Amino acid sequence: MAKKLLLIMAFVTFVTSAWLPAGLRDASGLSAKDKNAIQIKGSDTMVNLGQAWAEKYMENDPVDFVAVTGGGSGTGISSLISGTCDIAMSSRNIKEKEIALAKQKGINPNEIKVALDGLAVVVNPANPVGRLTLSQLADIFTGRVANWKEVGGNDETIVILSREVNSGTHVYFKEHVLRKNDPASKEEFAPAALMLSSSQAIADEVAGNPAAIGYYGMGYISKKQKPVAIAKDENSIYEEPVIANVVDGKYPISRPLFLYTNGVPGGLVKKFVDFALSKEGQDIVLATDFVPVTQ
Question: What is the pTM of this model?
Answer without folding.
Answer: 0.64
